[in-house]
Amino acid sequence: MFDSMSNAEPRAGLDEQIRYYDERWTKFVYANHFSLERCQFFLDALLETGFEEPRICDFGCGAGWLCSVLSAFGPTTGVELSPEAVQQARARYPMANFIAADATGWQPEAGSFDIVVSQEVIEHIEDKGSYLRVAHRALRPGGYLFLTTPNLEVLEAIDVAERKK
What we know:
The chain is an alpha/beta fold. Helices cover 40% and strands 18% of the residues. The longest helix is centred in the first third of the chain and has 17 residues, at 33-49.
């Protein structure tokens, strides 16, 4: 069930995706070395903004581990499709705020974040335009969108068992 605070109910056709991510994120224990590399990218980018105590949104936060790291630098909110992942993230990382919502239908207060992070999410989104419009709405003027997506050539070079971690 989605948070009443999220102001976004699940849209038709998302039930299967929600079940998939509920199962995936309930198995999460630790981030891997690829996660560490992406984390370093986000920390470097955060430093380059010059913001002090930025309001950060991790869009598609999964298990919430990156929110935990980012929350050391400013108030951080994770938005995740999986209510199970949100429940676990709240228990593991109480210093961050977590919302269960469909990122293509969520309606954050306009300009409520200095930085929106999208880590390896957009490639899983069918309606990329809606996803980016929501991210744009969430950002204040002069804010930053940090977006990463897998490089297929590199991804295919990684052993299948390693990719599934």
